[in-house]
Structure formats: C-alpha cells, structure tokens
Amino acid sequence: GAVVSQHPSRVICKSGTSVKIECRSLDFQATTMFWYRQFPKQSLMLMATSNEGSKATYEQGVEKDKFLINHASLTLSTLTVTSAHPEDSSFYICSAPWGGMNTEAFFGQGTRLTVV
Amino acid sequence: AQTVTQSQPEMSVQEAETVTLSCTYDTSENNYYLFWYKQPPSRQMILVIRQEAYKQQNATENRFSVNFQKAAKSFSLKISDSQLGDTAMYFCAFMKLGPGNQFYFGTGTSLTVIP
C-alpha cells in the first residue's frame, strides 16, 4: 500500500533556531499534503494544506511566517519551524490523500519537536 | 463548517469483550466519507475502517464494524473480541469531497483493553 515517510521522527533544537521536517510520499504522487499539530492527549489540529507548485493554505490562527511550507515536488513537502520557541514543542504529523478521488489518507510517522 | 464530536474521552473493555465508541458529526454536505483511525502509543495513525455516506450498508472490517446513521449523523465503531493490541486512541474523522479533501477529526477516545 501507499506509504508516507516523515523525517526526522524526533528533533531537539535550541530556541531561536529553525527546524525542517520532511514528508515524502514514497510510491505515489501527492499534489496535496496536510500538516497537523497534535498536543499531548489531544486531537490532530490542521495547520495548513500544502499544494505542489503553489502557496500553502494556512488555517486561521497559524502563523505563515513561523511555519513555512514548501511543496516543491509531487512527492515532497517540507515544514520549517522558524525561530523556534519552547511553545512550538509538539508532535507534527503530515498526511497525503490517496486513492480514487483521494478518498483515503496516509499519515507519516510524525515528528516530535522539542525546543529547549 | 464541519464538526466531529466524540463524547467518550476514555473507555475500557475486558479482553475478548465487545466495546462501542461513539461519534457524531455535523455537516450540511451530502457527499462525504467517515473514518475511524487508531493511534497506538507509537503515534502512527492507522486506518481502521471507512464508510461512504452514499452507502446505506454499514462497513465491516474483520472485528471492526460501524453503525452509520446518516439522518442522525452518527457513526459509532464496534470492536468485537477485543484484543490487547486494540489499546490506543481512536479518532473519528469526517472528510468532505472537494478541493484537497480535508479531514476533520474528533477529539479522540482513549481505549484500554484490560487483560
């Protein structure tokens, strides 16, 4: 079946630095990918929709300049957390729609970001 | 806007018993899909079962089945013969057909299977 690979699975960074998270569709093309943030014991909150070859669509309340999204190819979307602060520490998950009419979604393994 | 509600934050069930997780949703859409996803401690989201709104027949997948009541906007998940590996967070999700096919997730139910 379709696989979405997310890297890294864990990252620790210092405050003020930037961190890039990659999301790859390994055996299918994804013109759209989704980025979620998940706080402990809470649901997935959609942050933005990544669109290949065009600008990402951000959900209300998500800072575009802090969470930079690039979808440069049909198999890769990246999320860069810029000038990270401890409150950005969270679990980030990407997903890509798949199947006829894109009615399924495959999720990456997630990235646990800790900002110290 | 679409909303998905899971009213049971935590549930437990004895191994080999049956448990039902509740989910309701609100939408004005007519064409949509509903899902149950499982998130074990590894945090990997795993698809459990999917239901197309236009199908009246309830979806089943081995020990997992749903009770889809479209008029009531209810979509419950029944797990039969519960196994220890079923211990996880379970998220109900709604997807409307359209640009991007965006998912909307419920708040989750933490299920513990007791040996």
Give a verbal description of the structure:
The complex is a heterodimer of chains A (116) and B (115). Chain A has 116 residues and is mainly beta. In chain A, 0% of the residues lie in helices and 54% in strands. Chain A has strands spanning 4-7, 10-13, 19-25, 32-38, 44-51, 57-58, 67-73, 76-81, 90-98, 104-107, 111-115. The radius of gyration of chain A is 13 Å and the shape is globular. Chain B is mostly beta strands and 115 residues long. Chain B is built from no helices and twelve strands. Chain B has strands at 3-5, 10-14, 19-21, 24-26, 32-39, 46-52, 60-61, 64-69, 74-79, 88-96, 103-105, 109-114. In chain B, strands 2, 5, 6, 10, 11 and 12 form a six-stranded mixed β-sheet that branches. In chain B, strands 3-9-8-7 form a four-stranded antiparallel β-sheet, with no helix packed on it. In chain B, strands 1-4 form a two-stranded antiparallel sheet. The mean pLDDT of chain B is 93. At the A-B interface, strand 4, strand 5, strand 9 and strand 10 of A face strand 6, strand 10 and strand 11 of B.
